[in-house]
Design brief:
With 204 residues, this protein is an alpha/beta fold. It has a single domain, classed as 3-Layer(aba) Sandwich (Rossmann fold). 37% of the residues lie in helices and 17% in strands. The protein has helices at 28-39, 55-68, 91-97, 99-107, 120-136, 153-164, 168-171; strands at residues 2-7, 48-51, 73-74, 146-151, 181-187, 190-198.
């Protein structure tokens, strides 16, 4: 089984916005980028299409769903990092109004949560739970079937950290651009990386 991971398209938000789990819509540029990505798919459609259940990702999933003639399967475990009170806020404003909390979170973003939000280790746990469930499901018997998941930048980092056994600090160096694809292949009960951050879908 090949698992194709897609970062969602750009959200419609002002510069400096921390999207987090804010109910932001997908921007027009985000729609266009996902349409270009969808058009690059080669071969039979994927067996399943998963997505985060946040607004912008659900909208993006509809672009892929139309291309693949599939219903998207939303899953809260694929959400972006919950920034709590900072969801949708401007990072410059936060750093000025809540300097102590901002500094504390930036100094320990792995084990510290924003006010009312979640820690990186919590995000990593739910991403790991989703990936483990996928690997143990009947998709492991799907042969050369492909599965697509549309999610967010830090969720992708958490998934790759699990596959590559990376420390969070190392995973943070992985780049995932909006509307770009990465792929993992399930072999012998373990995922292996096929490609990362491609502007188009690549053949399996």
């Amino acid at each position: 089984m090949e698992l194709v991971l897609v970062r969602g398209g750009e959200a419609d938000a002002a510069p400096g916005t921390l999207p987090g789990q804010a109910p932001l819509p997908l921007s027009a540029r985000g729609f266009a980028a996902l349409e270009r990505l969808a058009a690059s798919w080669i071969g039979p459609p994927p067996r399943l299409l998963f997505c985060s259940d946040l607004r912008r990702t659900l909208q993006g999933a509809q672009v892929l769903a139309a291309r693949f003639a599939l219903d998207a399967l939303p899953d809260a475990r694929l959400r972006a990092l919950d920034l709590g009170a900072w969801n949708g806020a401007n990072f410059g404003t936060i750093s000025l109004r809540q300097p102590a909390a901002w500094t504390r979170w930036n100094d320990d973003w792995v084990g510290t949560a924003p006010p009312g939000g979640e820690r990186w280790i919590d995000l990593a746990a739910r991403a790991r739970n989703w990936l483990a469930g996928l690997g143990q499901s009947d998709t492991r018997d799907a042969g050369e079937q492909r599965v697509v998941a549309l999610t967010h930048e830090n969720t992708l980092r958490a998934l790759l950290a699990e596959v590559l056994e990376l420390a969070p600090q190392a995973a943070r160096r992985l780049r995932f651009d909006p509307a770009c694809a990465s792929a993992l292949r399930l072999e012998g009960g373990h995922f292996e990386v096929s490609y990362l951050n491609a502007p188009q879908f690549l053949p399996p």
